[in-house]
Design brief:
There is one protein chain. The protein has 15 helices and 13 strands. Helix 12 packs across helix 13. The strands form three sheets. The protein has a six-stranded mixed sheet, with helices on both faces. It has a four-stranded parallel sheet with strand order 8-7-6-9, sandwiched between helices. The chain has a three-stranded antiparallel sheet with strand order 2-1-3. Helices cover 38% and strands 12% of the residues. It is α/β, with parallel strands linked by helices. The structure holds ligand F0G. The site of ligand F0G has 23 residues, from helix 5, helix 9 and helix 13.
């Protein structure tokens, strides 16, 4: 097979440090693990900058026509690893995602205000693009022809797009039958070599770790610390949107735990650099059936990972052995956040409620609202506090879930069927009619009477 020889280990673009033993890596192995202890690496934070000057510079860039300035990631490039060649950075103008008020959801949760940062409004429909622009650009600049990831769908869609723009080839490993059609079709259209393995996400990760030892492919999962750096910018952009007034709480879904780690790293760095004087509490919500972090915190106080066999219809977070669990534990401890788990029915209900506010998201994102309701009930979040939900994926990522929900089929024949009775009020199945105005008028009148 004609492939460039493995260039790994390669010199890192920025200073990489092991999160466990602190060793500074002067070379990166294909799996981005510490050569001494095998733990994850992270990029050492920049420690001094003039916050006032940077805020002005970032605002100024919003008037620019340069692609890098138009990217909601690279606009903050002063706090990102400095790539040797800015002209070959791959950008789809990612980031720049809106904040939305969710009045209906606020009322339901028992809060005065509730805000969502919709990371599903990124170019490929998920937050993954913010990290991918950085890590894919590093791959390109280091001369890789192939990039690869194991994925529950969104990483693969994002990676395939950025690879195509590179141009580089991409290899996707996904669990057979457990990735939504929307995400799978993106990877196919963007030209990825897509392998559906007869295993789950954790099995795909295992296989990929072997492949990268044998072939010169560049790993783009979130153990890649450049992805984490890019994903940090969502927090920076959020603070800018809030005029540098940090919210009291930020609520994030937890899967492989890269995103919560990235957002936490960003808030901590922004505090150290003097952009903010208080930290939001970052709380992480998981599906009950994929609750490794919840169990890890409750049963070991965060000292030892309790891996689980994951099962949830929120397929994006169907992960039992999260790679970045130690980073996430640090974020919980440093910010005083909570972990919580939510049931399948609670996820489905919360997703419909976010949809009813005219926003919508994919199931994994809806765990945030479902978890928030519990945190309010527990008194951890107070009604007057400011809360931002991080919605990680677009509604159209998983239309099958939504259709089944509204048709009442989502839990048919499952163990959740009885509990799902409470969903009826949210279900709006399509109404099949003869092609006659009379029929439609009747439906309209009935709807107006609230029937
Ligand atoms: N929400 C969505 C929509 C996701 O796609 C993911 C992860 C998460 C939340 C969890 O984020 O892993 O950083 O804790 N999706 C990955 C993928 C695993 O392959 O697309 P995390």
């Amino acid at each position: 097979m004609q492939m460039a020889q493995p260039t790994a280990p390669v010199a890192p673009v920025a200073q990489l440090r092991c999160i466990a033993c602190g060793l500074v890596a002067d070379q990166t192995a294909p799996n981005f693990r510490c050569s001494a202890c095998g733990d994850l690496l992270e990029i050492a934070a920049i420690t001094s900058f003039d916050a006032t000057e940077l805020k002005a510079r970032w605002l100024q860039r919003r008037t620019s026509r340069l692609p890098l300035d138009q990217s909601g990631v690279w606009r903050f490039r002063d706090l990102l690893p400095r790539l040797p060649d800015e002209s070959t950075i791959i950008t789809l103008r990612e980031g720049n995602t809106p904040l939305y008020h969710l009045p209906g959801c606020a009322r339901i949760a028992g809060l005065r205000h509730l805000t969502a940062k919709h990371q599903g409004m990124n170019p490929t429909g998920s937050f993954k693009d913010t990290g991918m622009t950085v890590a894919a650009s590093v791959a390109r600049q280091q001369g890789f022809r192939w990039v690869a990831c194991a994925s529950t769908g969104n990483t693969s869609a994002s990676m395939a797009a950025y690879a195509a723009r590179g141009p580089m080839r991409s290899l996707v490993l996904i669990p057979e039958g457990k990735v939504s059609w929307g995400k799978l079709s993106q990877a196919l259209d963007y030209g990825a070599v897509t392998c559906q393995l007869k295993t789950d996400f954790d099995g795909c990760t295992r296989v990929l770790n072997e492949v990268i030892q044998r072939m010169p492919v560049y790993l783009l999962n979130s153990v890649n610390p450049y992805r984490i750096e890019g994903q940090k910018t969502a927090a920076i952009e959020l603070l800018e949107q809030l005029d540098w007034q940090p919210p009291d709480h930020v609520i994030v879904p937890g899967g492989n735990l890269g995103n919560s780690s990235a957002l936490g790293k960003a808030f901590l760095e922004m505090k150290n650099l003097g952009f903010i004087s208080t930290l939001p509490r970052i709380s992480i919500i998981q599906a009950e059936g994929a609750n490794a972090l919840v169990r890890t915190m409750r049963e070991t106080g965060g000292t030892r990972l309790i891996a689980v066999d994951a099962e949830t219809a929120a397929s994006a977070i169907r992960i039992g052995n999260p790679a970045s669990w130690k980073k996430a534990v640090r974020v919980l401890q440093a910010t005083g956040g909570a972990v919580e788990q939510v049931s399948e029915v609670e996820i489905a209900l919360a997703k419909a409620e976010i949809g009813a506010d005219g926003i919508g998201c994919e199931p994994a994102s809806a765990v945030t609202l479902a978890g928030l309701k519990k945190l309010v009930k527990q008194g951890f979040v107070k009604s007057g506090e400011s809360v931002v939900l991080i919605l990680t994926g677009h509604l159209l990522k998983d239309p099958e879930f939504t259709l089944k929900f509204h048709r009442g089929d989502l839990f048919a024949g499952s163990a959740h069927e009885k509990a799902a009775g409470i969903l009826a009020a949210q279900q709006r199945a399509p109404i099949v009619l003869d092609a006659a105005a009379d029929e439609v008028v009747k439906v309209l009148e009935k709807a107006e009477r609230g029937l």
